[in-house]
């Protein structure tokens, strides 16, 4: 068993809470830029003082609505400025925030409401209200007898949840809010976040103010503090209902960094251009998409050879940073920097110095590519149960392919069967109202992650797979699907891939196609513009492309682990179909059931 501890460099006092920074920042730097809001196509600044005033107004309204110390308040919304206002206001009222993904179905909302038992619900849009009306009404009939709901989107610019709560709390004093804040303890619950439910019913992860404070301070104590500082800015576009985006937002706010929000993913590149972030946070799929789109466009424009050579040079340049780059490589890198890399950096707003990636493995080649073009991606590792990042690569302390070292004060160990187990101030203390799941996951303070990995002598963690996802072939070979799937998704035409083969004679895969990349590929290969993935499933040119991707993937594994056969599916996996979580993770059990016939066809003689 191997173990590594990152020394503690701070202490979270019991008198502290995650909302304290709202008021200390408003007092110490009232004119500092806390947030930037996109209003009528232009970005406007929100100062620390005005943000604090807005938080207090909404907190007064929540108190007037009946929120008491320790009560849960559910928040269902996409990523936007109001999300942060309401989140901090819930804490300022003494409440506990229960985030709900804005894409959640009525059934998912019903389960969270029944389990968390919130006293109040804030929804974002008319559609959310309509889609959840029945389950929301039923919940409040059972609990409080009245529907305590507010809608963020008002009928006019001056209406909506923020304005309504401010009006409702007109007779509640600021002193009442500050008394609620003073009564908070770091050991009090701050948020109840439900897991994505990839392997079963979602569980409520209860994180305390101490957990969130340790996460924020841990991130800011790393060398990332060079960018997490006053004067820098970041654009948040991942769901704030997910612990990763929420934790980095809190750390950025605590550091004095200006935070912007957008939920307009189709126009993300254009938004980067107007906002010009200094750093961004994302998941691997977004980085894969940016790379694949650029590659596909280059090939469609007849510049494929240049792009491929530039990509190879970027990877080689990054790999050489751990040793030394020769004269020829330096010259090639300088040439491609002007021809290719500068354009890719411009797509991220022109001044993005780094990116942070989490939620899933990034893949070493993609990590080297982005570091080679001048936008290093610092990959991290964590779960909802660890308040987001438990470990992260940082400036000057990066090993591409690893997920970095533990944040200060935290300990990792690798058990005899290669399971990663974690302990420290960012680790939760249990699931909400679920003692059985808590007992299964925690062992004397050690959180059993279910992830498999390794740990080097310097404390860098490398993820190799998940225990529950391990495939055991009929021949007894253990195969972790994650690495194979990551490499397949690196191909521009492949959107998603899921590896199968449990108790089967060999490893197979289901593959879905990326519709955006497919459009350009059809034009370049003379295929009908209206041809669908189903139409092209037996097209020899397309099959040759996927065969090449599979062959390249198989080069990284043994013969027993290699993909022998695959099937191209007619459509993509989606959250709406229940095959993916809101954080873009595959629901393997659902997919295996939905595509049972296709899987069996792989193994048919």
Automatic annotation (TrEMBL):
GO molecular function: ligase activity
Gene3D superfamilies (alphabetical): N-terminal domain of ligase-like (3.40.50.12780)
AMP-dependent synthetase/ligase domain segment(s): 24-432
Coiled coil start-end: none
Keywords: Fatty acid metabolism, Ligase, Lipid metabolism
Record's keyword annotation contains Ligase: yes
Family according to the record: Belongs to the ATP-dependent AMP-binding enzyme family.
PANTHER family in the record: AMP-DEPENDENT SYNTHETASE_LIGASE DOMAIN-CONTAINING PROTEIN, LONG-CHAIN-FATTY-ACID--COA LIGASE
Protein name according to UniProt: Acyl-CoA synthetase
Species assigned in the record: Rhodococcus sovatensis
């Amino acid at each position: 068993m191997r173990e590594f501890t990152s020394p503690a460099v701070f202490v979270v006092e019991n008198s502290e809470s995650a909302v304290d920074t709202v008021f200390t920042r408003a007092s110490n730097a009232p004119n500092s830029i806390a947030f930037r809001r996109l209003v009528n196509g232009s970005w406007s600044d929100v100062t620390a003082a005005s943000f604090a005033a807005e938080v207090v107004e909404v907190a007064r309204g929540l108190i007037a609505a009946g929120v008491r110390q320790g009560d849960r308040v559910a928040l269902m919304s996409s990523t936007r400025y109001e999300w942060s206002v309401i989140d901090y206001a819930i804490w300022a009222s003494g409440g506990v925030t229960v985030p709900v993904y804005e894409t959640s179905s009525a059934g998912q909302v019903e389960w969270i409401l029944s389990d968390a038992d919130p006293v109040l619900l804030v929804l974002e849009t008319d559609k959310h209200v309509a889609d959840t009306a029945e389950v929301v009404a039923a919940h409040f009939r059972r609990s409080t007898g009245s529907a305590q709901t507010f809608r963020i989107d008002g009928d006019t610019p001056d209406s909506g949840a923020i304005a309504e709560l401010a009006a409702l709390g007109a007779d509640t004093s600021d002193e009442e809010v500050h008394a609620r804040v003073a009564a908070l303890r770091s050991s009090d619950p701050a948020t109840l976040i439900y897991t994505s439910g990839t392997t079963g019913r979602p569980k409520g992860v209860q994180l305390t103010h101490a957990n969130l404070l340790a996460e924020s301070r841990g991130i800011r104590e790393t060398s990332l503090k060079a960018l997490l500082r006053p004067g820098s800015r970041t654009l948040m576009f991942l769901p704030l209902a997910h612990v990763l985006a929420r934790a980095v937002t809190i750390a950025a706010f605590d550091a004095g960094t200006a935070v912007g929000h957008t939920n307009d993913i189709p126009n993300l590149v254009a938004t980067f251009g107007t906002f010009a972030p200094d750093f961004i946070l994302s998941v691997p799929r977004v980085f894969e998409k940016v790379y694949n789109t650029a590659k596909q466009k280059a090939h469609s424009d007849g510049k494929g050879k240049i792009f491929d050579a530039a990509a190879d040079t970027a990877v080689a340049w990054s790999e050489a940073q751990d040793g030394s780059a020769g004269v020829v490589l330096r010259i090639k890198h300088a040439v491609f920097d002007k021809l290719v890399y500068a354009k890719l950096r411009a797509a991220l707003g022109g001044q993005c110095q780094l990116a942070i990636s989490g939620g899933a493995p990034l893949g070493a080649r993609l990590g080297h590519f982005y570091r080679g073009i001048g936008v290093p991606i610092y990959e991290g590792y964590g779960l909802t149960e660890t308040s987001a990042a438990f470990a992260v690569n940082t400036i000057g302390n990066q090993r591409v392919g690893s997920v970095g070292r533990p944040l200060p004060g935290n300990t990792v160990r690798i058990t005899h069967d290669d399971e990663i187990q974690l302990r420290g101030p960012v680790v939760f203390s249990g699931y909400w109202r679920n003692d059985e799941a808590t007992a299964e996951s925690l062992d004397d303070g050690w959180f059993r992650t279910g992830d498999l990995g390794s740990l080097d002598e310097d404390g860098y963690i490398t993820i190799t797979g998940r225990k529950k996802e391990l495939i055991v072939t009929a021949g007894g070979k253990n195969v972790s699907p994650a690495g194979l799937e990551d490499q397949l998704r690196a191909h521009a035409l492949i959107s998603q891939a899921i590896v199968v083969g449990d108790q089967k004679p060999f490893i197979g895969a289901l593959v879905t196609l990326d519709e955006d990349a497919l459009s350009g590929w059809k034009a370049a290969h003379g295929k009908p513009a209206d041809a669908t993935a189903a139409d092209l499933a037996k097209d020899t040119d397309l099959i040759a492309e996927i065969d090449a991707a599979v062959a390249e993937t198989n080069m990284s594994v043994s013969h027993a682990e290699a993909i022998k056969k695959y099937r191209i599916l007619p459509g993509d996996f989606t959250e709406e179909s229940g095959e993916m979580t809101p954080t873009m993770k595959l629901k393997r059990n659902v997919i295996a059931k939905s595509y049972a016939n296709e899987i069996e066809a792989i193994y048919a003689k």
